[in-house]
Structures
1.
Amino acid sequence: MNAHTFVLPDLGEGLTEAELVRWLVAEGDEVVVDQPVAEVETAKAVVEVPTPFGGRVTRLHAKAGQTIDVGTPLLSVEPPGDGDVRREEGRGGSGNVLVGYGSSASGGSGRRRRPRAPTQRAPTQQTPARQTPARQPPAQPGRVPRVASPLVRRRARERGVDIGVLEGTGPGGLITGADVERAVRGTQGLPSMPSPGTGERRTPLNGFQKAMSSALTRSRSEIPEATVWVDVDATALVELRESARRPSDPGPGLLSYLARFVVMALKEYPVLNSRLDTERQEIVEFDRINLGIAAQGRRGLVVPVIMGAESLSTAQLDERIRDVTRKAREGQLAPEDLTGGTFTFNNYGVFGVDGSAAIIHHPQVAILGLGRIIDRPWAVNGEIRVRKIAQMSFVFDHRICDGGTAAGFMRSVADAIENPAGALARL
Amino acid sequence: MDHLVMTSDPRRLLPSDAPVRLISPEGEPVPHETYRLPSGEALLAAYAAMTTARRVNDQASALVRQGRLAVYPSSHGQEACQVAAAQVLTDDDWLFPTYRDVAAMVARGLDPVEALVLLQGDWHCGHNPYERKVAPQTTPLATQLPHAVGVAHAARLKGEPTVVMALCGDGATSEGDFHEALNFAAVFQTPVVFFVQNNRYAISVPLARQTAAPSLAHKGVGYGIPGEQVDGNDLAALLAVLGTAVERARGGAGPQLVEAHTYRVQAHTNADDPTRYRDEAEVGAWVARDPLRRLGTFLENRALLTAEQAAALDKDADDVAAAMRAGLSKDAEPDPARLFAHVYQTPTPQLAEQAALVADEISRMVDG
């Protein structure tokens, strides 16, 4: 006999998921129609869910603690031979017994709602993945998109379209669902959306990707960023690094020197080691410098944080950097290794690229990037010489400082790279 | 100056000091100087309807948690009010329900499946309002009250014997529509009974934050409408008080305001968690005053309800519940274009434009 499968319904006017608190039945149990089978917690309330099918429970599709999407299977019930089974009197039936789910005989405290563990709900609800950032310019600050319909907003969110940049074709420039679809087709260069399920693969974002997605989307939608860049002659620094190399001890890596210079420059320009409290309209500068360093991890690029970098020497920085890059490679970084950064140094040169318009890691206010260091013909004292040249880029939140400050900061790092001996005086 | 002298004696408009009660929470009769206990026959019929009403509430609450209804505001615990509001009416009278009054609509004779079509998410109210003289349920608070007054006023102008039962909750008494409806009804002496089910909560807002009046029934005096308050879990008292109000209105004495003191035993809807704003002890105290058990005890003690009769009523309620499960097993699939079809007899240019925009949107959507 075919089992009926009960899918999780929307339990509260527009919810998309619920957490399974506990099962009230087990596989193999006989259940009757409307018997409570599970206790679930939605964003709004803890709710006992009654089964619409009677019979024998053949499968529980989730485990306690798991978050279940609305519309996915909850439990399967194999019906008995003769229609639905009614609950017997005396088993707390749904007939004339005065038990309602709002005041059920749970015997618990007055407050059944428990705080949710932070890890169970990734902070991605508000801003799901933005799939096509590269092709769309960021929204212009101050421009309010003309969208009347929540359905259109949702469609845009699901399609990864930034409504801030869409031109509406509806009345008075209203953005319609069709405008969103057109934007999707435009970014994909396709005449129409492929029908779902053919020639495409769908991979749900994992928790880490969701969190990244949320932080990046927030950065691009909130921060009016500006970028400055400069070519740096790193010949002297490379020579310095090589001169410290010993057969027994390789000495500090280039990255460690660079990190040390960044810390130095941040002390000179503390406004760049801060966050913007938009609610109180205050810039919050931090005493500590927690330096995020991009590193290649097992499942992609990660940004582990060197805490308290302001008090570390170049050698100490080197030790910490080697430690976190090894952990990244081995997939051993703990969540706390990846959070709490106050500034990020993005050494994207190791990926063989020269430049990048990086995205600031919200709520940080700036990100410094260094491209690959390669031999280039360079004019030195009126002569063409082969030098070790890299391009450095600096993206900053224009709300917290002007371009002069940003240029001053970057120049400070660049000068140290070009003249490390001179930098010693400032360390 | 004569024209400043109000015609009504304010003392005549005041409600009883305590809510009218004819049967105690323990099921014993309580003598009253004004109101008399309805006949055993009437009480048994009311008990039967209340058994069904309770079952309709609980089955609908289960259906909403099974994804068969979009939302269900249950009147579990308020069934005495629901049944009395319907049973004091004749076939000529109108019922204007709120979203929490499905059980009253069923008590008025509507098929529960039809009564729940709106809450299933369809674009229409599921029943022909003229057939049983039951207006569509309204979701905005108190908007049905001016409509109810309008129907009553029209009936009076046409010389029809219609009385309108206009339902609302405690929260609705803070709305402007409540004021406008009561004032118009009083000035034009329309045959309306304003029946406020004071279940003590407007979602999470308790009565103490809703009003500073001595009772909601006292609000009538300001309009020149007599107010009365009644134990909302005592079906006998409700039949007596509401029945008197309806007959009074039918006799040309104008509107009346009746406040029933009752309690919303369950959550506001499935999207609400009442444990966040009230104690289980408070709920428990009201569950002990359950209207169904109160009347059942009274009838059993007087041998007006036998065990066989009670079993038969439960069986009938089972059948109603089974019919609800069967009738609501498929999702409503509303056609968006229909939204515009019945707003005005002749659509306004703006509405026609909106309809065209929606049709255009739908036709241009690749995946519908």
2.
Amino acid sequence: MSKASVFYDRFERHSHGEGLKGHATHYCPGCGHGLAHKYLADAIDELGIQDRTVAVSPVGCSVFLYYYFDVGNTQAAHGRAPVVALGHKFANPESVVISYQGDGDLASIGLAETVATAQLGAPITVIFINNAIYGMTGGQMAPTTLMGQTSSTSPAGRNEYNGQPMKMAELIAGLDGPVYVERVALYDAKQRIKAKKAIQKAIKLQVEGRGYSFIEVLAECPTHLKMNPEETEKWVKECMEPVYPLGVKKDITVDPWFKRNPPCFKGEKILSLAGATSEHPERFCKGFPTHLALNDISLKLAGSGGDGAQTAAMLIARAAISEGFDATHIPSYGPESRGGTSYADVHVAEDEVLNPGSPDPQVLIAFNAPSLAKFGPTVRKGGFVIYDSSVVTDAPVLDPSIKMFPVPFTGIATDLGKAVVKNIVALGALQAATNIFPKDTLLGSIRTALKDKCALIPLNEEAFAWGIKSVEALEK
Amino acid sequence: MALKERPKPYLLPEYCKGCGRCLDACAKDCITLSDQINPLTGLVPVELDLTNCNACGLCMDACPEPYGLRPAHEGEIQDFELEDPAKIFGVKPSDAPVPVDLPSEVLPLPRTEPLVIKGTYASALGALLAGCRHVYGYPITPSTEGAELMAKFLPKLDGTFIQAVSEVATVNMMYGTAGAGLPTMTFTSSPGFSLMLEGVSYMIGAELPGVFVDVMRGGPGLGNIAPEQSDIKLACHGLGHGNTQAIVLAPSTPQEMLDLTMLAFELTFKYRNPVILLGDGYLGQMTGKVQLPDTMIKPGIPKWAVYGDAMHRRNVITSIFLTESDLEAHNVHLNAKYDAMKVEARGESFLCDDAEVVLIACNTPARTAKGAVQELRHQGIKAGLFRPITLWPFPVEELKAAIHGAQRLVVVEASAGQLEDEIRLALSKAGVYQFPEIESVRRMGGVLPQQSEIMTRVLGRKEVLA
């Protein structure tokens, strides 16, 4: 006898295939799942995609889908089948991925995944078995349970306090993502033929890379509806169908679009994206700036968002590393997206930065008065404070051993025509005030950062030079 | 072309559950409900009288059982008495091939100058160099830069970055891609990691690889976005429901964010088990010097994968074992794997050989503690630092060696004792009950212990507790 479509010849995973279980499903007599399985198997067979198919078993009665289908199988957590399907689809765009789910799985616990995956629109196929009841857990109310219908968790019948039944096909068809949505039934020969065709079409649309499709199948659960199979078919037709009208809910023509190249594993490409280069940066330092500290210099740059404190901090760290030292930079921001506080802790060490925070910096660059007031008193004795004298009119009185450098960062930058270069003015001032690195080290760091915006280099060089001049003028 | 003759139905009574759905499908009334209980099944199968059958096939379409009403092809069934299913349907459940491992390749990388990048960027680059091209994520501070970098780079490498609807969806997308046998990862932070734990348990149960970079932040609840070592307990002892363990790595520099992310991918495939990389908010945001490696990985496809091709058709990814003995056997297997992971324990000792005071810390607090050790040494105190690099399995042998001569142990951590609990548990399990009283420097709520606080603790023996 020929193999039944893409079903296993023997259901090895069903109680180890022993006895009758080797060829019988675990479903109750008259259950709609078996029919949906058969139509799915037929579709896979007729489309010739058995090898490429990945079936995602959900949680619910169809959790054992993988007992039966001789395809790649994966079993998902409750409600997560569509996103597991996406994970498979993007891993292998050639695979044909089917998310087979019941009403509790799809329309209750997995609603977010269901809707988001439908709207994403990537070509997967969702088969949704709606039997208006929880099967595996034993007859509890489903999101699709009808008004008035009794269940073990709506013993008096579903009422307004349980909410209305979820019409998933209509909901999904209302999204832009899907290309094809249809609701079908299994209660008579005519409906079964339609169901079979709908499932086949839904998978074909995926195979052709046209998009996401969703088939809702009104199915029978004689056990938990507490009827015989014949009565259940009748109930689906007479009670369910009026609430869940059958038919095509969405069917749009879309050209095949889902085409993805194999991922790139070229090292050069990653290095170039990372901005890594084998060019040795020129070094200008004769040694570690031990006149500031033996092996670890602590700096803090503070201002508001937009002052450029973080960029300046980054430029100092890069300058240090280009000289072969170690450096760290830790940014911290207020909760505001723009205009809040913006502080940077920077450390430069000869070998290894051991403690990257700067609670008591040797050097403070303050871009505004609150920053100066807050961090000025934390500066170590004998340290340096460089601040924007354009905006700070009243500098606090600090320990007399601390050298103060009022430099009009904003004024100079505005005169140069670009207020945003005030942080570069500050870097120039830092260089002149502390001689942390030679001028060329910091300039090299600035030029590297601007290598894709070369036109801005002269302006930045000028800003840097003005920062130096301002400090020199103070020292005269 | 000759018209194909349509086959009439055939039924093995054992495979009929007697639901009767075929009855109204037959216009010729060939099928009737019987009253004879089948002794093999205890069910009442339908009876067929095919005298009037016109082979329309509708009864077969109405039968919910794959091996219920089926087409009886001419010549295939000679002997209706032969009812041994193995003889009728054959003994081979599937003709799918037996899969083999398609190994990953190690490719050389040209030597480059060190980069100056953030911890999260370093981790993202590590993932790319480890061969990961499938990243899923949900934005959460302070880990988002990793996802942003992936969103920028992956399309240029024909990879996939999808911003999922939630962390729950994220981990399940990872489950899918991991199930297909490919490297996958996410960046998240504490509240997001909590949401992922269901999926982590499923991945462990289904033996799937995946790398979770959790840039820990202050908790509980929404807490704040500042650094805390808030998820050590979760990663070491709370990876969702059931018997779950995973290797937990704790980097302390941007360089280690890259190195340990690459190691995480190696280990996650080696053991077919997720690997958790715990960073702290400081480390995620911190910019530092990062040297890229000399080699990178082009991943293969393991033989267990469900890739969606002929080679892997026979595979299944699942964590359900319905029979108790099967599930117990699976847990025994997982336990053996957890035992095998113990060789991956890594720790680092700094000046511990003659140390009288041994500080123990990981992540950024370990850096701060290292600074304190140096300062204490300047002051003539024999201090050392032990830094666990894997928090699970805990490097207890290395710890034992490091504290061998210690008179004082000081645990420095940005949590309410989660690291200390790991240390105590590890020592206890290793049978070490005699060790100096554990002192602590703890901060919480997004505040990291400062070097000055460590100094105060060691020099003044004062409690430094937030």
3.
Amino acid sequence: MIDEEFIKGLLAKHSFLSERESIDCLTLESPSGELISFLEYLKTEESFDMLVDLTAIDHGEGEDNRFSTVIHLYSLLHHGYIRIHASCNDNNEPSMPSVSSIYPSANWHERETYDMFGIKFTEHPNLKRILMWDDYPYFPLRKEFPLAGIDTPLPAADVAEVTDASVEPAPMMGGPFVSSANGMVSDSEPRAKDESWTEKNEKPL
Amino acid sequence: MSTTTKEISIGDIGSRGAEAAGKLDSDKMALNVGPSHPTTHGVLRLMMELDGDIIEKCEPVLGYLHRGDEKIAENMTYNQFVPYTDRLDYLAPLANNVAYAITVEKLAGLEVPPRCQAIRVLVCEMARISSHLLGMGVFGMDAGAWTPFMYTFTEREKLYTLFEELTGARFTTSYTRIGGVSRDVPDGWLDKVINFVDQLPKAMGEVEKLLTRNRIFLDRTEGIGEISKEDALAYGLTGPNLRASGVDLDLRKDKPYSGYDQYDFDVPIGTRGDCYDRYLVRIEEVFQSIRIIKQVVEKFPSGAWYAEDAKKIFAPPKEKILTSMEELIQNFMIVTEGPQIPSGEVYFEAENPKGALGFYIVSKGGGVPYRMKIRAPSFCNLSILEKLAPGHFLSDITVILGSLDFVMGECDR
């Protein structure tokens, strides 16, 4: 059981940890430098045998620690989850030690996190893009990346030469209807992102 | 018309073969499978290195179905995202709908009434049966048995008719809303569900007769693609693939949600973790789902089918909106601003047909999530392929892929 006693013991043993308030499971914050040894401890001593998820959050440009990774572990013994937050120190070149040597399941999750956020996982055995193609220049889940996407050269250069095509941003006129967080009702209600043509303005030919 | 014959000399065939072999680089062969290959169950590409017939290296290449669902989720209200969840594991959209709704409700601290929970359990189990029917059918096909597919697809068709009657759509159901479901069960629908599950064991028996003791099927699947208990846990496998390796983890039992603890069912686990065990586990899970469905219908609760007090989260049914001012305003606010969810973070995994489908949502308040991560079971299940495939024959790869029963829709998101 992950109860008060368990948490107290864990915090006493690892002074670098701090506990966060959470509505669902034990949530800890760990400095990135201690992450490897802490996860090793959790796996071998406390039988958290599965790393079920690893991802990152972009807290937005201008934040002190812009990127942080979030790890969810599951224990068959305790029948419970534990969540570990770790912040990346550098905003421009965020990095994090790879945990794939402890949990092989982290391998693909870390590749995805690198692909989407550009967080470099040091000592990762095969850190390359997994969902986007290898030469893709952007990190799509960063907050500044637009929903429609950015004009990008085709991954296949020979096809691009013949067809003169590129990866184009999605059309946002007339829908899809998207919403933005918070703000006035008139700003946050679902609407087409680009209103250059609506019922009032005709669709350009 | 006259015919002429001409003698041509082809020399000694044997020596020509030897000459050709000498010219070949006899070490390794690179083979590309996919992204459009019938046995890959979607747009999965495999880059393999072969030594003769034996796979030495296998590298899956993903992303051909990547649509940026997580980015899209950050740009729309919670209810607007429900149709996108259909397109994750599109063989069990109802189960995805339910998993997503429960996650957001957990974040909102909202408890849905028993009738709503029962409906959700019912549709989840029906989705499981439908997914496993397809999984078993195509698995048989991958191993060279065409006929079982016809039986399982006939049964799946009946389920889709039931889905259509309940949700209005056969495939992309979009059935749940945050705080409830889109509509109550229609009159007489539950009897039809019972009729279906009553006749299903007979059809399953036919499939089993064709496969379970089939000598060819056994030779193709037994001992192939063995995953040890330790590997299964280390690579984060979930669902039938994990249980086939002998790990007793079913989130419906371990962390019961939506009232699963009220129902009596067993969790089948395998011993060897090979392709055959994964098949057997799925067969048994269908029978356990039938058990659950019968219990749900038997004690189907009456009362509200959506959270009536959640006035800022669930938009009331249409007939109320059209007749009452207060409900009209409520509906307007929820459509324009989205369901109002407090700030915080939540992680929830549901036991889906393919494994544990997890949603991690970070909210900063309001109707739009700040960040949503979808933990797709197929993504994790496939990650073991790099380790699993080497050492097998090339012809085994179709069987291994079929037994892992993955869907690229949720793998690439």
